[in-house]
Amino acid sequence: MAHGRRGFEEAISATSHPLVHETMIWTQQLYDIEDRAKEMSAEDRRALRQTEALPILARMKARFDEVRPTLRPTAKLAEAIGYVLNRWDAFVRYTSDGRIPIDNNVIERLLRPGAIGRKNFLFFGSESGGKTAATLYTLVQSARRNCVDVWPYLTDVLRRIAAIAPGDTTGLEALLPDRWVAAHPEHRLEQREEESREAQARRRRKRAARRIAVVQ
């Protein structure tokens, strides 16, 4: 959804067509629903999306289908509409499963360190080295996502994992970041949790300010 919205943001300076502002308002309404659903269970979140988000998405698609034939294919607005319509099933998939987020911004932020660092390590030495690096990146980023102090976490995991028998999924699951930090609360980075909450609050304020600007 974030990628789809970006196309309409870019079209604001290129056209005065009312659909641009209509789409921005609808998108903000969809994100408002997500803000309200944040603390809900997956099933309750799905029910809220079905009740409130689906009608908004239906209006969006109807307008896109109506306006698209009237635009030049190379127009910014036409490109924005085409991007969304060509991926429509993916755009509305989140409404049928409360576990799926409205966008993939969190995943992209977690992947950013790898994208930034890849020029610093163009070669891992072997294919198995690359697989090992991918596994370690996954562990580190999952730990960061769960506000776990990475160094003591990895130290303990690498020390204990050798003693776990092959096929012992229970033993391995105990080493997952969220399970591990529950057993070692002294290694939870409370400051990082607070920073995460503050960042979420800033994003909500920005969305609210942008929504007001769009309405005006």
Task: Describe the structure concisely.
By secondary structure, the chain is mainly α.
What does this entry look like structurally?
The longest helix has 26 residues, at 42-67. The relative contact order is 0.10. This protein has eleven helices and no strands. The protein has helices at residues 2-11, 18-37, 42-67, 76-85, 88-92, 105-117, 127-145, 150-160, 169-173, 177-183, 190-215. It folds into two domains: 2-103; 106-196, no CATH class. The protein starts with a helix and ends with a helix. The mean pLDDT is 86.
Secondary-structure topology with pairs:
Elements: H1 2-11, H2 18-37, H3 42-67, H4 76-85, H5 88-92, H6 105-117, H7 127-145, H8 150-160, H9 169-173, H10 177-183, H11 190-215
Helix pairs in contact: 1-2, 1-4, 2-3, 2-11
The poorly predicted ranges are none
Shape: elongated
End-to-end Cα distance: 23 Å
Mean pLDDT: 86
Structural class: mainly alpha
Total strands: the figure is 0
What composes the largest sheet? none
- Order of helical and strand elements: HHHHHHHHHHH
Estimate nothing, just give the exact number of structural domains: 2
Approximately how much beta-strand content do the residues carry?
Answer: under 5%
The residue fraction in helices comes out at over 70%
Count of discrete alpha- or pi-helical segments spanning 4 or more residues: 11
Rg on CA atoms, Å: 22 Å
